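Forwarding these from the shared drive since the link keeps breaking.
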Amino acid sequence: MTPYAWLQRWSVCFTMAITMTVILWGCANVPRHYVRMAEPDTTLTALITHPEMYRGKVVLLGGTIVEEEENEQYLWLHVKNRPLDQDYIPHRPIDMNGPEAGSYWVMVTKQEFPRQYRLWARMTVVGRVTDMQRLETEPVLSLLYVRGWGINSAHNGIWENVDPRYIPSFPGGIKRN
């Protein structure tokens, strides 16, 4: 094999390796740095049972939006839990009346959040656990990252907080622990 043929073959292999890396990186359902930040294997049941263990920590949950509320600054999403699989894709819990079939709340600054979220059938949520609860036992997460899964791929979307260390102030009237 001539040096030119060897160089040409090596260039093609290198280009294919880079292309596959970029494609696979782009297919990740949750960016790696959020997976590393999150408490491993967190479930809604654990979050509700031991809220003090998770306060201020980042968690990964799945869900579907069942209700929304707005005030001047924040959008509050009431989310029915959908456990995540190994690829961080939300699915219905095995028992629709079991502990993993509960709900939680997500809060996000409404000016930054895309209105496309109303087309999401499911979502993968990365959020920081606040020291608040709504409706007695439902935890509240401050949203860092969300991947929305639409009924068709044209409705999919991603939103990311530009400063994941930011912890917003909370309006009065919300129960704090």
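-- next protein --
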Amino acid sequence: MSEEILTYLPLLGVLFSSMGMSFVFKDYIADILANFVVKKTKDIKIGSRIKITAAGITTKGDVMHMGLLRTTLMEVGDGERLPSVRTGRLIKVPNFMLINNPVMVYGDTIIDEVVSYIPRPYPDSLLLMESMKDAIVSHGHGLIDVGLYQKDDRLVIHGVFEVKTSEMADERSKILRDFLIKSRQITAGTVPLTQESKPPQPRPEQKREEERVAIPLPNAEVMDD
């Protein structure tokens, strides 16, 4: 890509020297030339998912539009927070950032993983591995590998699969839930115990009333009013 930029440097020099442009206008020219370079190389195109790292800040999104000065991304969550989910926010990226910073371009499919920790008592290892394979395949993903190993007092079941980049948003949790059901770790109707599902706690006044209840004891003196 750097060779492509060098091709346009003479043109850039002529424009700068002949028109005496301000610093801000030079940035616009750089964005225009970057637009030509990006379209010529065809590494980034509409529909591509990309991740840009600039000045320690990561920007991830799907390319929605490539303008003369700016490329519009639909932001996609990254890392542990909203992983691979479109946030609904649009990001306008100067085109020059696409050729002046490290850019990760996602393909049509991506390799992902799902991990589950199984406490003692351990179920049958064959059941665990077959359940993970079935959970991955039943969702239409390409099975790559399933591994099983021990860590401290837990078994770790590790599934690696291929998923379409546009569909990877919540596939891990779906596969994990199916695996836990198939391996009999949970039942289909299991609901985690949350604040909403906890049994009602007694009110303070109710608790005080309960504390006043006297339990008859042998040899206790009976006091008449």
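The chain has two domains: 2-105, 109-182. Residues 1 and 15 are 22 Å apart (CA to CA).

- D.
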